[in-house]
Amino acid sequence: MFPTPIQKRPRAMQVTYQGFLPLALILWLLPLLAVMMFSIRPLSDFSNGNYWGLPSSFELFSNYGRVFFESNMPRYLLNSLMITLPTVVGAVALSCMTGFALGIYRFRGNLLIFFMFIAGNFVPFQILMVPVRDLTVDMGLYDTKTGLILFHIAFQTGFCTLFMRNFIRALPYELIEAARVEGVAEWRIFWFVVLPLMKPAIAALAVLIFTFIWNDYFWAIVLTQGPGSQPVTAGITAFNSQFVAQYHLMSAGSIVAALPPVAMFFAMQRHFIAGLTLGAVK
Amino acid sequence: MTTVTATGSWVQRNRMTLTPLLFLLPGVLFFVVYVISPIFQSFGISLYEWDGLGEADYIGLDNYRELMTDRAFEISLWNNVKWLVLYLLAIPAGLFIALFLNQTVRGIRLYKSLFFFPFVLSQVVVGLVFSWFYLPREGLLNAMLALFGLEPVNILGDPQLATYGIIAAGLWPQTAYCMILYLTGLNAVDPEQIEAGRLDGAKGWRMLWHVVLPQLRPATFIAFVVTIIGALRSFDLISIMTNGGPFGSTRVLSFLMFEKALGEYGFRMGYGSAIAVVLFLIMLVFIGYFLWQMWRDERAARH
């Protein structure tokens, strides 16, 4: 193990390390802790210049309550959810299929199609912006959740295909050959042999895509406007102009907006990290 | 009856070609319509003067000629270089934190999660958090500077500093990402090689450089890919933290493109596309290199 396990070091070093850990963490999360502290203060603290002393009153419930009951925040959160969930399902479904085709079969152009997916996944969003916006307008889907979902599914299919194909490549190929010898139809091999083995990959991708799409901002402002269909990342700017300079409410609002992917991460940590670090170990 | 059996057997005979074709069809169709063909369309649009609604006028390379004399383009390009170079700091910083946390003490798993967790926040939230952190009066940064008796700074209001302030905010989640890549990599480092290195008297830096880092190459490669792509894609943080200002000093190509094509300065789709093409070509250099590396690995895996 590298570096040398702390247990093999002198006692003084161990104590220093143990003490340093929480200190380093507080430093690392300092900007976020500051926002959390803002979000429980009353407005009067800000006008009195009491930014970092003890809050003059504890306003957690009233601040977060106002976020939920006096703004469009619940609406934006719901929109985010209604955009994110169908995208996760769509992108995972499409890439299970493409990953299966590219991982199992040998045919001309296999690698070429695979690399098309990888390459597309890296391009700057701006090169797609004008044509994708036009296409969405032409289909009558501008400022709808559907328009945003369709694009997200298409774009995420690139990364998901890379992921799924490599995962399927690592499965024991003998399983498929054995099924073929038994005379099992190809689509049944997909459904009954490969798909059940892909559960961990599906779980990992689902949490990753959930986070990516929930956090998307660029496409939200290009393809939607207004509280009717905008997700929370775009809605937060409208929220902030509603409560301009009221830092206690803006802080509470951005914490609420950030919470769902954070909860998802802590609940599904193992899958999340497995997905993110695929390929980091050979 | 005979035709049915004939087609049946044709399907049967070609099933190894037909199956992958059918499985690929929906995914490829979506991807071509929404990702591949828009790239080429943008190249086309960049040759027109077009407001997005009326007739488009063909003007050849005039948009590109205009770029040459556009001061905003020059500033943006230069800022992209700053992003690219400084963003790479996330890689050594991530490695450093990973080495710091690669221990087995009580609660270390929670520490690792909490160190990683800025990456899960959306860039919008990161941008807001940091712009409040930098606030001249209310911000924690200046409160801390005051403790040390230093003058307050208004990072995002200063054209000389604003871009660096935004990059620092971007480095926060990016470092977390690199850290998790290296933690995973360190987990898989071969303990026998470490032991062999120890017997040979290698310690500290020498061990890291000659024994550990070579084994972390796959993690380093991915860290490079995501960091470079992330640097060139930077948009959200700039839009949230300064909206390009002060005096346009924090624009990058991606932001300038959006501003020209959809911003308050009018809808110049052609000119915006020309900027997007330049950004695309810059990224293509890196994408080409990454793909070439991956292609080599694929070939090696086949033989």
Explain the overall architecture.
The complex is a heterodimer of chains A (282) and B (303). Chain A is mostly helical and 282 residues long. Chain A has two domains: 6-61, no CATH class; 69-276, MetI-like (MetI-like fold, Orthogonal Bundle), CATH 1.10.3720.10. Chain A has 15 helices and no strands. The two termini of chain A are 18 Å apart. In chain B, helix 5 (90-101) packs across helix 9 (162-187), helix 7 (123-133) packs across helix 9 (162-187) and helix 14 crosses helix 15. In chain B, strand 1 (48-49) and strand 2 form a beta hairpin. Chain B is 73% helix and 1% strand. Chain B has a two-stranded antiparallel ribbon with strand order 1-2. The model of chain B is unreliable at 1-5 (pLDDT under 50). Chain B contains 15 helices and two strands. Chain B has helices spanning 2-13, 15-45, 62-69, 71-87, 90-101, 108-116, 123-133, 140-147, 162-187, 191-199, 204-215, 217-233, 236-241, 253-262, 269-302; strands spanning 48-49, 57-58. With 303 residues, chain B is an all-alpha fold. Chain B has a single domain (70-302), classed as MetI-like fold, CATH 1.10.3720. Chains A and B meet through helix 1, helix 2, helix 5, helix 6 and helix 7 of A and helix 2, helix 6, helix 7, helix 9 and helix 11 of B.
Considering the protein shown, what is the CATH homologous superfamily of the largest domain in chain A? MetI-like
CATH homology superfamily of chain B: MetI-like
Number of strands of chain A: 0
Which stretches of chain B are poorly predicted, pLDDT < 50 over at least 5 residues? Answer: 1-5
Estimated share of beta-strand residues of chain A: under 5%
Domain module tally of chain A: 2
CATH architecture of chain B: Orthogonal Bundle
Give the N-terminus to C-terminus distance of chain B in angstroms: 46 Å
The total count of helices of chain B amounts to: 15
Number of helices of chain A: 15
Give a short account of the largest sheet of chain A. Answer: none
The whole-number mean of residue pLDDT values of chain A reads 92
The oligomeric state of the chains shown is heterodimer
Averaging pLDDT over every residue of chain B, what do you get? 91
State the helical fraction of chain A.
over 70%
For the largest interface in this structure, which chains are involved and how many residues does each contribute? A-B, 98 and 103 residues
CATH fold-level assignment of the largest domain in chain A? MetI-like fold
Form type of chain A: flat
Order of helices and strands of chain A: HHHHHHHHHHHHHHH
If you compute it from the alpha carbons, what radius of gyration of chain B comes out, rounded to the nearest whole angstrom? 25 Å
